[in-house]
Design a protein that fits this description.
Elements (H helix, E strand, L loop, with lengths): L2 H10 L3 H5 L2 E8 L8 E2 L1 H14 L4 E10 L2 E11 L5 E13 L2 E11 L6 H9 L7
Parallel strand pairs: 1-6
Antiparallel strand pairs: 1-2, 3-4, 4-5, 5-6
Length: 135
């Protein structure tokens, strides 16, 4: 079983200790689109995922696709559930994990909330802000 399959199994068991046990003590986490979210260590993994399961008690992870290249394992994930306030939870994206000694040594997360509204024209306008003659 690959690392992403093991991560998803621990997530779907809602077991933060088993999930955190898959990470190296000196694990390095990066979110390139959110650089201030970077952290190091296994302890923050346990703290963060304990909070995830408390906030989304029916959290469900699905591994959409996976590819392995040497020590790097790319996994496309789909996360869903319901927040404790009853609102829907959904995130999707890619996690690039570096696996060493059968543990996640580092990962770059490109996982974002799913937007249920807006079309491509609205996204182009919001993200790129073209001059009005192009809008």
């Amino acid at each position: 079983m690959g690392m992403h399959e093991r991560l998803v199994a621990a997530q779907n068991a809602h077991d933060p200790e088993a999930f955190a046990a898959l990470f190296a003590d000196d694990y390095v986490s990066e979110q390139p689109a959110h650089p201030a979210r970077a952290f190091t260590g296994r302890a923050p993994v346990l703290e963060n995922w304990t909070a995830v399961f408390a906030g989304v008690p029916d959290f469900r992870a699905e591994l959409v696709a996976v590819a392995v290249a040497g020590d790097d394992e790319w996994g496309e994930v789909s996360w869903s559930g319901t927040h404790v306030d009853g609102s829907p939870f959904a995130m999707r994206g890619v996690i690039v994990a570096t696996v060493r000694d059968d543990l996640v040594a580092a990962a770059r997360l490109f996982v974002e909330p799913v937007e249920a509204h807006g079309d491509i024209a609205e996204a182009v306008e919001e993200l790129y802000r073209p001059p009005t003659e192009y809008a």
